[in-house]
Amino acid sequence: VHERHDLVALLARGHGTLQLGSEALAIREGSVVTIPRGVPHAFVNASRRPAAALVVFSPPFDGTDSVPVNGSP
């Protein structure tokens, strides 16, 4: 969870499942998702190759706004 940042992510390579709140979304190369601040999220790569994403934070990410949820690392 990011408490102070919204983000938009473009999956540039790979495919998998994005857990977004209570929804599990199948996403693939070219998928674009918006993740509002306060919404728990995680991506599980289903590809044999590493996935790559371009992520844009608003406001700009300061590196200190990542809050683990329910035992996540």
Describe the 3D structure.
It contains no helices and six strands. It is globular. The strands form two sheets. It has a three-stranded antiparallel β-sheet, with no helix packed on it. It is mainly beta. The chain has strands spanning 6-13, 15-20, 23-28, 32-35, 41-45, 52-58. The model has no long low-confidence stretch (mean pLDDT 93). Helix content is 0%, strand content 49%.
Salient structural properties:
73 residues; mainly beta; three-stranded antiparallel beta sheet
- List low-confidence stretches: none
Kindly report how far apart the N and C termini lie.
Answer: 12 Å
Largest sheet: 3 strands, antiparallel
Shape: globular
Mean pLDDT value: 93
Structural class: mainly beta
Number of strands: 6
% residues in beta strands: over 45%
Strand order within the widest sheet? 4-1-6
Helix content: under 10%
Order of helices and strands: EEEEEE
Count of DSSP-assigned helices: 0
State Rg: 12 Å
List the helices and strands and how they pair.
Blueprint: E1 6-13, E2 15-20, E3 23-28, E4 32-35, E5 41-45, E6 52-58
Antiparallel strand pairs: 1-4, 1-6, 2-3, 2-5
In short:
0% of the residues lie in helices and 49% in strands. The chain has strands at residues 6-13, 15-20, 23-28, 32-35, 41-45, 52-58.
